[in-house]
Specification:
- It is a single chain.
- This protein is an alpha/beta fold.
- The chain folds into three domains: 4-107, Winged helix-like DNA-binding domain superfamily/Winged helix DNA-binding domain (Arc Repressor Mutant, subunit A, Orthogonal Bundle); 134-143 and 401-497, Aspartate Aminotransferase, domain 1, CATH 3.90.1150; 146-160 and 177-391, 3-Layer(aba) Sandwich (Aspartate Aminotransferase, domain 2).
- Helices cover 41% and strands 14% of the residues.
- It has 16 helices and 18 strands.
- The chain has helices spanning 4-12, 23-36, 49-56, 60-72, 148-159, 163-169, 178-191, 206-217, 232-240, 257-263, 288-301, 356-369, 375-386, 389-416, 441-450, 478-497, and strands at 45-46, 76-79, 83-86, 134-135, 200-203, 223-227, 244-248, 250-251, 254-255, 271-274, 304-308, 333-339, 349-353, 420-421, 430-435, 453-454, 460-462, 467-472.
- The strands form five sheets. It has a seven-stranded mixed beta sheet, with helices on both faces. The chain has a four-stranded antiparallel beta sheet with strand order 14-15-18-17, with helices on one face.
- Strand 6 (223-227), helix 9 and strand 7 (244-248) form a beta-alpha-beta unit.
C-alpha cells in the first residue's frame, strides 16, 4: 500500500509529456507549490526514486533530477541511505505557479479586485485571436527572414563581454553611449540628418516613443490633428493623454494643409500627427509642396509636428523621400522612427529625434518606464551598424519584399480586374485596396473566415466615403499570396450573391 505522501503526490502532480517544459521542472514546480500550500509539511519524506518513477511512469534519472532541483532551491534535504526530507526555506513569500492544480481549487487567486478602479476604454486591446491558417495584417515584416543562426552567435558574444557588467552597474553616465553615437552616425548617413546624441532618444518601440512624447507634449483637451484616416494605435495614445483629436482631409498629395489654415486659429492647435513618407493606412506620401506649407504653418501657428516615419527602410522604387525633420530650422518637428525592422522584434528599437530640451525631458519619462534598458541589444545593434550588417540585411530583404509586392499586384489584377482599385506604392509592406462598387467589409470578413482566412477589423476601413482594406504582404510568400487572393475573391463572390 502506498504511503500517504505518495497518494497525495498522485493527486497533486500532473505531468504533460508533450509540454515544452522539461518533466523534472514540471514536477519540481508542483511539489514546491504543494509545500507552499502546506499539503506537504516540514519533516515529510518523499518517496524513494524508484517508487516515484513507478508512480508516474517516468525514468528514475528524471526523479533524481527532480530531487536535485528541489535540493538546489532549498526545499528538500537529501540524506544518504535515508531519503529525501521536506524543508521549508526561510523566505516563504515567493510563489511558483504549478502547471496543474487539482485538489486545491479552493485556493485560486481572486479574479476581481476588492476595490474600485477606473478602466480605460482607450487602452482596450485591438488584437484579435484566430485559429485560421491564413491571415492578413496591416503590413508587418517577415520574421522568417531574420538571420537566427548569425544572431545567436552575436548575442552570445555580447553576453560574454567583460565590460557588460560594469556598464549595467553604472548609476549614471555623463557621456553618451556607443550605441547612441553609432545610431546618430547611421541616421546621418541614411536619412540626411545632421544630429548629435543629445538630439536623440532610443526606446523599445515606436509606440513607446509616441507615448513618451505625448506625455511631454499634451495636456487634457489639447487639440491634435490627424488625417481623416489615421493610425489607430497613435489615436489610442493621444486619447489616453486626454487630447481632443480632430481629423483633416487627405487627398493625393497627403493631408490638406490649407484646410487647417481655414478652420483653425493661431495657438489653438497643439500638434499635427503625420506619416509624411507613406501615410497610414492609405500609403499616400505628403508632397514636397505640402511639406513646406505644413512647416511654415507650424512656425506661424506655433504647433508641433509629430513625423512618424515607421517604414522608411522599405523603399523599393527610386529614392526614399528624406524626412521633413532634416529641414526643420525652427524646432517644430518631433521625428519618430524604427531601427532593425528586418530583425526579430527583440532586436528592434524605436527612436525620437527632436530639439535638445525636449529630448532631455523625454528621457526623464524614459527613466521611469525603462531605467534598465537593454545593454546587450544596444551592444549588438552598435556592432551591426558599425560593420554595415544592418544595411546589408535591409538591402537583401527589400529585394524579397519588392517581389512580393509585384506578385500581389499581379494576382489582384488577375482575379479582381476593375473591382479593386489600388496604386502600387513605391515602398512599404502594404497595399491600400479600394472596392468599387462598395461592398460590406463585415460580410467579406465573415465569408473569408469560413474559407480559413482571417481579416482583422483593424485593416477594414468602411464609412459612407470609404470601402478599403490595408493589405499587408510583408510576411506572406508568393504561395500564400496566391492562395489568399483566391480566397478573397471567393468570399467577394459570396458577398455579391448574398
Amino acid at each position: 500500500m502506498n504511503s500517504p505522501v505518495s497518494e497525495l503526490l498522485k493527486q497533486l502532480i500532473h505531468l504533460e509529456k508533450s509540454s515544452s517544459t522539461a518533466l523534472y521542472i514540471q514536477a519540481a514546480q508542483q511539489i514546491i507549490n504543494a509545500i507552499q500550500r502546506r499539503y506537504l509539511t516540514e519533516g515529510d519524506w518523499l518517496p524513494g526514486t524508484r517508487t516515484f518513477s513507478e508512480l508516474f511512469n517516468i525514468n528514475r534519472n528524471t526523479v533524481v533530477a527532480i530531487y536535485d532541483e528541489l535540493a538546489s532551491q532549498g526545499w528538500v534535504e537529501i540524506i544518504p541511505n535515508k531519503g529525501t526530507c521536506i524543508l521549508v526555506p526561510e523566505h516563504k513569500t515567493a510563489t511558483i505557479k504549478a502547471t496543474a492544480q487539482r485538489i486545491d481549487q479552493a485556493h485560486d487567486y481572486a479574479k476581481t479586485t476588492g476595490f474600485p478602479f477606473q478602466t480605460s476604454f482607450n487602452l482596450a486591446s485591438t488584437n484579435e485571436n484566430s485559429d485560421k491558417k491564413y491571415r492578413i495584417n496591416d503590413g508587418q515584416p517577415d520574421l522568417k527572414l531574420h538571420p537566427t543562426h548569425q544572431f545567436s552567435k552575436w548575442y552570445s558574444a555580447s553576453m560574454k563581454r567583460k565590460t557588460l557588467i560594469s556598464k549595467w552597474n553604472q548609476s549614471a553616465s555623463s557621456s553618451h553611449s556607443v550605441f547612441e553615437i553609432q545610431l546618430c552616425n547611421y541616421l546621418n548617413a541614411t536619412r540626411g540628418f545632421h544630429i548629435k546624441p543629445h538630439h536623440l532618444m532610443s526606446t523599445r518601440s515606436i509606440e513607446m516613443s509616441l507615448y513618451i512624447v505625448s506625455q511631454v507634449l499634451l495636456k487634457p483637451k489639447d487639440i491634435v490633428l490627424v488625417g481623416d484616416l489615421s493610425n489607430y494605435a497613435a489615436n489610442m495614445i493621444f486619447q489616453q493623454s486626454g487630447a481632443a483629436i480632430k481629423t483633416i482631409p487627405i487627398d493625393d498629395d497627403g493631408i490638406d494643409v490649407e484646410y487647417i489654415r481655414k478652420h483653425f486659429v493661431k495657438h489653438a492647435i497643439r500638434c499635427v500627427y503625420v506619416c509624411a513618407h507613406r501615410h497610414y493606412p492609405t500609403t499616400r506620401g505628403l508632397s514636397a509642396e505640402r511639406r513646406l506649407q505644413l512647416m511654415q504653418l507650424a512656425k506661424e501657428y506655433q504647433f508641433a509636428i509629430i513625423e512618424d516615419d515607421f517604414d522608411y527602410d522599405f523603399q523599393f522604387d527610386g529614392s526614399a523621400m528624406l524626412p521633413m525633420a532634416i529641414s526643420d530650422a525652427n524646432g517644430v518637428i518631433i521625428y519618430l522612427g524604427k531601427l532593425g525592422q528586418s530583425l526579430f522584434p527583440s532586436f528592434q528599437t524605436g527612436f525620437v529625434i527632436a530639439p535638445e530640451n525636449l529630448i532631455q525631458e523625454a528621457k526623464n519619462y524614459l527613466k521611469i518606464l525603462d531605467s534598465q534598458g537593454d545593454l546587450i541589444q544596444e551592444q549588438m545593434l552598435s556592432e551591426l551598424i558599425y560593420e554595415g550588417e544592418i544595411h546589408r540585411l535591409i538591402k537583401k530583404n527589400i529585394i524579397i519584399y519588392k517581389q512580393r509586392r509585384d506578385f500581389l499586384c499581379e494576382c489582384l489584377h488577375e482575379h479582381f480586374k476593375e473591382q479593386i482599385i489600388w496604386e502600387k506604392p513605391s515602398g512599404g509592406l502594404a497595399l491600400w485596396l479600394r472596392f468599387e462598387p462598395k461592398i460590406s467589409l463585415i460580410k467579406l470578413a465573415f465569408y473569408t473566415e469560413q474559407l480559413d482566412l482571417f481579416l482583422p477589423k483593424t485593416i477594414l476601413y468602411q464609412d459612407k466615403n470609404t470601402c478599403s482594406i490595408r493589405f499587408g504582404f510583408g510576411d506572406l510568400n508568393e504561395e500564400d499570396i496566391e492562395i489568399i487572393v483566391k480566397k478573397l475573391r471567393a468570399a467577394y463572390n459570396m458577398v455579391l450573391s448574398s
